[in-house]
Amino acid sequence: MSRAFILLLDSFGLGATPDADKYGDSATNTFGHIAAWAAKIGQPMQLPTMEKLGLAAAAHTACGEWAAGFDQRDSFTGAYGAAREQSTGKDTQSGHWEIAGVPVLFDWGYFPKTVPSFPAELTDQLQTLTGVPGFLGNCHASGTEIINRLGDEHVASGKPILYTSADSVLQIAAHEEHFGLERLYEMCEKAYELVKPYNIGRVIARPFVGADSNYKRTSNRHDYAVPPPAPTLLDHVKDAGGEVIALGKISDIYAAQGVSRVVKGPDNMALFDALLKVQDEAGDKSLTFVNFVDFDQAFGHRRDVAGYSNALHEMDARLPEFIAKLKAGDLCVITADHGCDPTSPGSDHTREHIPMIFFGPGVKERSLGISETFSDIGQTIAHHLGVKPLANGTNLL
Ligand SMILES: O=P(O)(O)O[C@H]1O[C@H](CO)[C@@H](O)[C@H]1O
Ligand SMILES: [Mn+2]
Ligand SMILES: [Mn+2]
User: Fold this and answer.
1) What is the per-residue pLDDT across 268-288, written as a single tens digit (0 to 9) for each?
2) Cα of 165 to ligand 1 centre, how many Å?
């Protein structure tokens, strides 16, 4: 029996790639800078499980330095390395699709950093189709900041909040109760059709609750993503008769292509509980793919170093439960889709190496060096499961 598990820590980068200067990210290092911050405040990070699997060694491979508090060890249990992205974007879709064998070699459309950011033609059509009295925002913003700034005006006027970021995305924030969740979803479906000519990767519904300049997003976020342009690892596994179990926002990111079963959860630890349950159920040739979004959404974009560090400790503390239940024929990988250095300016993703830490009963300690494409991860899994090889990437094991 062979099974595969991808544990994707959304935004857990291991240091700038050689092309990071083109993105203004040449000094970024998500893991390295969190570890340095922790050491500086006198509480060095302790991630014994991931360290033993090869995390710090993978980070050393990526950036040439040992993260503060992580000493060089002479034995690991995983096959560890780092990967650089072939796709030109540093967004979630590009990262995930490339891992699954489909790098994004075309240019996504982006909305400019002007105010208004969205073309009048687009917002006019959206207003006509939905009958709202207008829009607020219409700019680049951090999603948590803009709802607190414009939430009161939104509630009073009924105008939804439109914003974007360095990603190829149109986000619509609206109050779950005052505006209505279904109404927000319907608006996003219309917006998804309208952004097609602009080559935008995703429209995201961002419902929130609260009052009086104190608003909080809910877990009813919904992504309307364009599908990958070619079959991914998920399709190859499903076509070969294996179950593809998508936890968290994985199904949204691949527009449900190649997904057999969707399991959602409100936060990292709920998703970890779901992962442990799925681990008992997954059968031969299955792929279980989980995206732990809090690293990115709750801490990376929020530039919350302490929160990010804490989330890594929480994850590390739970991993032994998962490892203890692995069976012969299981191949697992801890990886990421891009960086989001919480110590860097702004609130956007950062162009970094991602970890590739393979482990499981049949994996022997080994340094894998640096891959030139994230697709080496997917190809290694395709080979392990014995499904059709991917069009891109090299088997590493
Ligand atoms: O600031 P928030 O709304 O969390 O936005 C972030 O979330 C979006 C999707 O992951 C990205 O485009 C990023 O900008
Ligand atoms: Mn991401
Ligand atoms: Mn993000």
Assistant:
1) 999 999 999 999 999 999 999
2) 7
Q: How many angstroms is it from 159 CA to the middle of ligand 1?
A: 20
Tokens representing 249 are: 């926002």
Question: Which ligand is the nearest neighbour of the Cα of 95?
Answer: 2
Kindly state if the Cβ of 171 falls inside 6 Å of ligand 1: yes
Q: Please check if 349 is assigned to a binding site.
A: yes
- Nearest residue (CA) to ligand 1, atom 12: 167
pLDDT tens figures, 101-149: 999 999 999 999 999 999 999 999 999 999 999 999 999 999 999 999 9
**HEC letters along 71-127:** CCCCCCCCEEEEECCCCCCCCHHHHHHHHCCCCCCCCCCCCCCCCCCCCHHHHHHHH
Residue 275 CA to ligand 1 centre (angstroms)? 24
Average pLDDT, the chain: 97
**Band of residue 71 on the pLDDT scale cut at 50, 70, 90:** confident
Q: What is the pTM of this model?
A: 0.95
Domains and CATH numbers, the chain: 3-106+229-385 (3.40.720.10), 120-225 (3.30.70.1250)
**92 pocket-lining for ligand 1 (C-beta < 6 Å):** yes
Q: Is 167 in the pocket of ligand 1 (CB under 6 A)?
A: yes
Cα of first residue to Cα of last residue in the chain, in angstroms, is: 17
Token pair for residue 81? 């390395």
Three-state secondary structure call for residue 66: coil
Q: Tell me the C-alpha distance between 103 and 98, whole Å.
A: 4
The reply, when asked if residue 337 is annotated as ligand binding, is: yes
**At 370, which helix (H) or strand (E)?**
strand 366-371
Residue 293 Cα to ligand 1 middle (Å):
11
Phi, then psi, of 285 in degrees rounded to 5: 65, 20
